[in-house]
Design brief:
two-stranded antiparallel sheet, Rossmann fold, alpha/beta, single chain, binds glycine, 46% helix, 2 domains, Dehydroquinate synthase-like, alpha domain, binds nicotinamide-adenine-dinucleotide
């Protein structure tokens, strides 16, 4: 380990027979080979990355494998959500097979949530299943998508509708790589950090209010602390409800029913990033909770105020580029019905009785929902 590196912290995801570590720390890209070596079925990996991240970190990762005596091939995909399309997935599978993997080859995902979801799904089906390791490089991927084994790709019917639960063998989050992440992407990931406070950890929400601004301004200590705390929260939830069957993992969908509608309306494109949609969705979920008399109005105010203060777009009129003039209540509610969380047309929401008191419900008064969306569009 380099003299400048701070000690790494480890969070365990406790799944019977498939438990794994999330290692979090500075300059870990240079140690991936050493950390992965004891877990590999054979000293052979294929690194999947995108064409933004590979030039930034691919060479250091390759050097770490070489130093550990691990043979490493690589495949690079275009950056962005389009790499999760079916056709792109087909190309990736052929590119992987071109490198002649066997059942003991391990895939390594070096990138954000797109590369992680794509590589994880490729690992689930390549040669009927091989191991994979996550090396997440966005804040969103470090605090959420790299942990928990949800993998998948998109279809013309919607996002992540084809996929598998396939847990990684190891997650290595190098906190320094966030230095090169565009600020807007960092902010989008921060929405997923704050989410853990809103779900069931009011003290962490207080921490976010106190330190969130420093975190998004680049404070490394705040960043490391938030990543570790978020990973502990996610690991605990995933260990208790891996396959989202007990309305516990579903709490991680706070903000997602509204967020999904906003993303669908803006075409799942650059006008609204996933984390931005989650941020705006969480503000709306708290507003709806307050409107329904479930949650103090003051708590909904706090959520909106903090997310907005760090720079996340929470008012609909500030969201969506050219789309911002054409929000429509009926269309947004229609998108909510098309969300994969809806069951037989009944909407599923994560609402809250206060900060840190989220719960899942399928009983939301449609008139109140319509009024709320009308008001949000007008605000
Ligand atoms: P992303 O993977 O598209 O990354 C965002 C952009 O940042 C890309 O252009 C990427 O090339 C670039 N980038 C990544 N790391 C960088 C770095 N260190 N420096 C400079 N640029 C860097 O987006 P994301 O927000 O990480 O992930 C979004 C995806 O995650 C969506 O497809 C979403 O469906 C998925 N997701 C999955 C889960 C899950 O549980 N599996 C959870 C949440 C989101
Ligand atoms: N990001 C939601 C989940 O992992 O369940």
């Amino acid at each position: 380990m380099s003299a400048r590196a701070s000690p790494a912290r480890t969070v365990r995801v406790d799944l019977a027979g498939r438990a794994y570590d999330i290692v979090i720390g500075s300059r870990l890209i240079d140690r991936v080979g050493e950390l992965a070596a004891p877990l590999l079925a054979a000293p052979r990996v294929i690194v999947v990355s995108d064409d933004v991240v590979a030039p930034l970190y691919g060479a250091r990762l390759a050097a770490s494998f070489k130093e550990a005596g691990i043979e490493a091939g690589n495949v690079t995909v275009p950056a962005g959500e389009s790499s999760k399309e079916f056709a792109a997935f087909g190309r990736l599978m052929n590119d992987l097979l071109d490198r002649r993997p066997d059942r003991k080859t391990t895939l390594v995902a070096l990138g954000g949530g797109v590369v992680g979801d794509l590589t994880g799904f490729a690992a689930a089906v390549l040669l009927r299943g091989v191991d994979f390791i996550q090396v997440p490089t966005t804040l969103l991927a470090q605090v959420d998508s790299s942990v928990g084994g949800k993998t998948g790709i998109n279809t013309r019917h919607g996002k992540n509708l084809v996929g598998a639960f396939h847990q990684p063998r190891l997650v290595i989050a190098d906190t320094d790589v966030l230095d090169t992440l565009p600020h807007r992407e960092l902010l989008a990931g921060y929405a997923e950090v704050a989410k853990y406070g809103l779900i069931d950890d009011a003290a962490f929400w207080d921490w976010c209010e106190a330190h969130g601004a420093a975190l998004v301004a680049g404070d490394p200590a705040a960043r490391a602390c938030a990543i570790e705390h978020s990973c502990r929260a996610k690991a605990r939830i995933v260990a208790a409800d891996e396959r989202e069957t007990a309305d516990l993992r579903a709490l991680l969908n706070l903000g997602h029913t509204f967020g999904h509608a906003l993303e669908a309306e803006t075409g799942f494109g650059p006008d609204l990033l996933h984390g931005e949609a989650v941020g705006a969705g969480m503000a709306l979920a708290f507003d709806l909770s307050a409107k329904l008399g479930l949650c103090p109005a003051f708590d909904a105010e706090r959520v909106r105020r903090h997310l907005s203060a760090v720079g996340l777009p929470v008012r609909l009129r500030t969201i969506g580029g050219d789309n911002r003039r054409r929000w429509d209540t009926a269309r947004l509610i229609d998108h909510m019905r098309g969300d994969k969380k809806a069951e037989a047309g009944r909407l599923t929401f994560v609402l809250a009785r206060g900060i840190g008191k989220a719960f899942v419900t399928r009983e939301v008064d449609m008139a109140a929902l319509r009024d709320l969306v009308d008001a949000a569009i007008a605000a």
